User: What shape does this take?
Amino acid sequence: MRRLREFARGPHVTIVGWTVVASIVVGVVWGLVVPGEQLLVVAPDGGIPLTAESMHRFDAAAMFACFTAGLGAVVAVAAWTRASLRGPALVGSVLLACVLGAVVVAAVGDLVGVVRFQVPDVLTEGEIVTRGTGLGTPLVLLFAPLVASIALAVAAVLNAHDDLGSGRSATISRSPRPPAPTIPEGEAPRTRP
Assistant: This one.
């Protein structure tokens, strides 16, 4: 329990906190640049997308993937610069931060889209309205942690230190080697046939 309290007060929580703050900014930007989808109202409670307007769903998902992939890369590189934190806890913190960050980007971006593309309460048949496209598929939430994990893996592979430069010595338990056989002077070493 004490270790959990230490972890909660430690720098790993700072990584998650700053990632969520950055995600709010990225979510606002995504919500402002994502295109709206135009619908032809065919009933008082719904409509159908105009020709080629359904492509904006892909645009929204692709922009989201790019923005959150960039966020994941920045978070991973920023966290890696803290050499004393390098290790499994850092990877867990970065992945948690990226998952939470992607969810925050989606929520904030959708909120900005609702404010930006306000659909009237009363719809008349034949009217064309624009609504926010939204995320489309939850699978794009995986881009941030995926890119972050790849960035951390590349940084670890390129690191020349056994302890990843964290300053903690890597302890490896080795069994002692048996002593080398001694050959008395004047005798040739024995070879097997």
Q: What stands out?
A: DSSP finds five helices and three strands in the chain.
